[in-house]
Amino acid sequence: MLRVAVPNKGSLNGPATQLLSAAGYRVHREPKALFATDVPNDVQFVFLRPTDIARNVGAGVLEVGITGQDLLAAAGNAEATIELLRLDFGVSRFYFAAPHGVAASIADLDGKRVATSFSALVRQAVAKAGIHVELVELDGAVETAVELGLADAIADVVETGASLQAAGLHTIGEPIMRSEAVLVRGAQRTLAPASEHAVEVLIQRLRGVLIARRYVMMDYNCPIAALSAAQEITPGMEAPTVSPLQEEGWAAVRAMVLRSDAQAVMDRLWAAGARAILVTSLEACRL
Predict the structure, then answer these.
(1) d(Cα 250, Cα 243) in Å, to the nearest integer?
(2) Within this chain, do residues 61 and 186 fall inside the same structural domain, yes or no?
(3) CATH at residue 258
(4) Is 196 among the domain residues?
(5) Are 139 and 154 within one domain?
(6) Which residues of 174-210 are buried (b: 16+ CB within 10 A; e: fewer)?
(7) Could you tell me the CA-to-CA distances from 5 to 18, 35, 43, 62, 268 in Å, in that order?
């Protein structure tokens, strides 16, 4: 049975369980339960803190897991894991931040106290910048460290920036790193053939859902004379499907289109002479 580590709480938990459910897995668990077993798919989901997932998958304790790229780096396990798939959620950036007037650049942090929950990342960043800071290591609520007088600046994950603004802080320089949720496996762990196959199925299913979320299926009727222009507008993933219609001089066309472009594509198709343009959402796919 394949064991898959899933974040047990926080911003990664909901999107991870929703993605797995959309991929056909039974991820339901009793409140506070640490395990959920999906017997039909021969998978057991283990609910852990995202930081523990980074450590346990990297150490080979668990076969695969979902966690953040920033948490892998913070745990020092980025090189001990292999990134199998980026999951399009949990997107964030990691910044230094300070009150206005304290620091305008990373170089201005030299000699200052910096509070963080990601000490490994900060050490790497300051070493790269050629400066020295006094680390104040916290487990959480890093934004309050300056107001409490614990530090002069902070280094933390920034999603919207709202909590920084509320604390009177501003980001400094470019992001230390950009991160999103990823599916990873241990770099050194060798899996049994059955588990290896289960991992491949997991990747295919998740990728199929991710693609379906980004694309829609577009169907339309098109005059043969305008078919070449229409196909340039909707090239599809590889090529559109074109079928003759009973009405002479017309063809039915089907192609996948980026969801974000669907309205603009319909405008262009209509202008080119296409009619009966329909858009259908996708649940999953295999490409």
Answers:
(1) 9
(2) yes
(3) 3.30.70.120
(4) no
(5) yes
(6) eebbebebbbbbbeebeeeeebeebbebbbebbbbbb
(7) 14, 9, 11, 7, 45
Q: Which residues contact 182 (CB under 8 A, 6 or more apart)?
A: 66, 67, 68, 69, 72, 83, 84, 85, 86, 87
Give per-residue pLDDT as tens, 81-109.
899 999 999 988 889 999 988 988 999 99
Tally Cβ neighbours within 10 Å of residue 257: 22
**pTM for the full model?**
0.85
**Residue 201 domain flag:** no
Q: How far apart are CA 236 and CA 282, in angstroms?
A: 14
Contact assessment for residue 48 and residue 142, using Cβ atoms and an 8 Å cutoff: no
| H helix or E strand, kind and range, residue 85 | strand 81-86
Do both 66 and 185 map to the same domain? yes
**pLDDT digits 0-9 by tens, 225-253:** 999 999 999 999 889 999 999 999 999 99
- Domain contains 197: no
